[in-house]
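HUMAN: You are asked to prepare a plain-text protein record giving the amino acid sequence and the backbone structure tokens, both parts labelled.

ASSISTANT:
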Amino acid sequence: MIDPTLRHTAIRVAAEDPRVRVLLVDVVLGYGAHRDPELTISRVGDAIDQGLQGLAGRTPEDIRRLRREKFLAIGRAV
């Protein structure tokens, strides 16, 4: 089975990016498929909904400012 870590990370990053308008999720059937794809799809949908709710009513400028502040708060290289 292929390690899904990179894919999961990429989906999370894309789902949180306000520039992303469409996120296509491919579902694998058969060998290597998730044990409960419906639950996984539901959870991904919930995460996307939650992310979108946090953007509701904000201007693009507000979103860029908040994202900038968020990443600057993570840390700085010295």
User: Anything to note?
Assistant: The helical segments are 5-16, 37-53, 60-74. The CA atoms of residues 67 and 74 lie 11 Å apart. The mean pLDDT is 82.
